[in-house]
């Protein structure tokens, strides 16, 4: 029953068993063969995702990334779409391909625009993907300006989400690393004002950063 939801559940259970028993290579071969056999059926995306997951588990990052991206291209309506691209981006980043990682993550974020047009729901990893773009711009590319713009998008353009305080903290961090103390202080002040229950505030991290930057000194 390759079009039944139970078929997808079966793939997940088999993948879990393969992981527990250390049988990833054999599972991967079987998943790829069945994906070819059931091409176009509802279980194909789950089989292809699981095969890519197996490739990642056995250390073939190149094949895993290629297969995650291909599955997302062929199955844009799959519930595994954002998972596949997020994992592909993680592999791309680990390989030093910041541009490729951002490209995969932008494919997830771009669904927000599509959702506004067709009225579909946001993907589960949409906001996390948008936040990750800011981190890559800041940490890998050392581009504080691009990082700030990416974080501002999470805070201002993607609706209410749990990553907004993380984005605000990222803005403050990016300004600090760029040597823009006044902007960093302003960002920290906004963090405490707009997100008083954020972990950065509760754990005193924003206060420590403000002291380090000398925010409010001389006033």
Report on the architecture of this protein.
The chain has 219 residues and is mainly alpha-helical. 74% of the residues lie in helices and 0% in strands. The protein has helices at residues 5-21, 24-37, 44-57, 61-74, 81-94, 98-109, 111-118, 126-140, 144-156, 164-177, 181-194, 199-202, 205-213. Helix 6 runs antiparallel to helix 8 (126-140) and helix 10 packs antiparallel against helix 11. The longest helix is centred in the N-terminal third of the chain and has 17 residues, at 5-21. The N and C termini lie far apart (71 Å).
- Number of β-strand runs: 0
Q: What is the CA–CA distance across the termini? A: 71 Å
Low-confidence stretches: 115-121
The biggest beta sheet is recorded as: none
The outline comes out as elongated
SS summary, helix count: 13
Oligomeric composition of the shown chains:
single chain
Helix-strand sequence: HHHHHHHHHHHHH
Radius of gyration: 21 Å
> Percentage of helical residues?
over 70%
Structural class: mainly alpha
Strand coverage percent: under 5%
Mean pLDDT: 93
